[in-house]
Specification:
With 73 residues, this protein is an all-alpha fold. Helices cover 67% and strands 0% of the residues. The chain has three helices and no strands. It is flat.
Length: 73
């Protein structure tokens, strides 16, 4: 009995991990699109700023700052 309950709870827990995550809905108005784009640009600028700071730490730079398609250095 306890084993069945434990297996059921484990199965439910693993099933919850496999469901796709909810996505962010597309903005509905031009103002929302503009805010979204500004947010994306702000996050990218912050990422580039932090990557410029850690560029001397080569291993961390490779791990945290490389993007797909970047040339291998």
């Amino acid at each position: 009995m306890i084993r069945t309950i434990a297996l059921s709870l484990t199965a439910l827990g693993l099933a919850a991990c496999t469901f796709p995550q909810p996505w962010e809905a597309d903005p509905a108005s031009p103002v929302q699109w503009e805010r979204r784009q500004e947010n994306i640009e702000r996050r990218e600028a912050e990422r580039q700023r932090l990557c410029a700071i850690i560029k001397t730490d080569t291993d961390r730079y490779r791990r945290d700052c490389r993007r797909p398609g970047d040339p291998i250095r």
